[in-house]
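Our working data are protein records whose layout never changes between entries. Getting from the letters to the tokens is the skill we practise here. To make this concrete, we reproduce a full record directly below:
***
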Amino acid sequence: MNLPLHLGFLGAIEAGLIALLVGILSYGLWSWLIRQAGASVGHAIGWACVTAAVVAGGIDTWNLFYLGIVKLESPLYARLALQGIHDAESLGARVICEATGALTGVAVGWQLFSGGFRENDVRKNGEKLDKPD
């Protein structure tokens, strides 16, 4: 995300909360687009998960991947690779929190935009069923 967040676990939690909002907005956008196209909700959920994960954790995920692939054989290359990363010590925790936040945000967006939190009328054969108190 490349935002100036706190260091350590607090920064990872902040990144996860931002990713949660990105996931909710991503599902909202994709559900609107998919409804216009006439496709199923599964397409909206899938594309929202992919875009939320890429938008929310793109830079941090790339940095984690890059550090695992590139040969950092000299201290100079290691220092150059770590200079561009905000809080390199908590990079793994931040990536996990961003991925979890993005996917949770899509699930919350699905509940919000599909009416999962609203109380549904339960009807059987056209009759309204009484709810126990």
Observations:
- The chain has four helices and two strands.
- The chain has a mean pLDDT of 79.
- Residues 8-115 form one domain.
